[in-house]
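hey m, so remember when u said the tokens were messed up on ur end? i reran from scratch. heres the input so u can diff it against urs
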Amino acid sequence: MSDMQKGLIGAVSALLPKAQHRWCAKHIEANWSKSWSGVQMKKMFWWSAWSTYGEKFEDQLKSMGSVSKKAIEGLLWYPLQHWCRPFFDTVCKNYSCDNNFTESFNKWILEARAKPIIKMLEDIRIKVMKMLKKLEEEGKKWTEEYSPYSMDLYHDFRMIAQGCQVVTNGDLGYEVVEGIDRHVVNLARKKCTCRTWDLTGIRCPHAIKALEHDKIEPLNEMHWWYSKEAYLLVYQPKIQPVRGEKFWKIDLSQAMQPPQIH
């Protein structure tokens, strides 16, 4: 996840060709809205970016088109798979479309960033070394099998599910009504037409309702990536302590040269 800095886009494409590279929707909205200002247009932009299924996206495009066709042309210049949830690859179980978490890291190292490069990297090394220990200790204190965040989201979805109605076709299909929306759930394929389950790995309200209809515990199908076991494996490797700078082994062939004068 990054902003649209040209160097980053080229570097990720060249060095990490198989990576799913998302562009921050906030940056796209800021660039796009320079030409298309207005509160309503901005609302339609975010509804199109946040919606998890394509029909709502199409509706927002039509609404934008009634205001300005050029606004749509300007918006579609940005490849949809990079910033719009209906077009995200579902391998990554994260439906974030802004880079708030990278901005948080930026703020976390703010003091270190002002220092010369070696001192900066040393400060970041110490911060990360302490962070790995802290996060592992927090994970060991979890009282449930899955992360607190995923459990909060699951309980929210389960509350929404109570207001849904479900009809089964007697096979693998479930038709779930939520308000004026109607979704199709396929438990065998672990998919719902709302795409929330696909994008997050956490059963959506419609899938929860279908499972409860069949008297199956919905929590059993939470994605392993949210489990305590997976979390602890992430923070298990540690950064090892090092001695002071005067003890570092210097390889002269790797010495950093000053930049050329222009």
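this time it looks ok to me. The mean pLDDT is 88. if urs says something different then somethings off w ur setup not the seq
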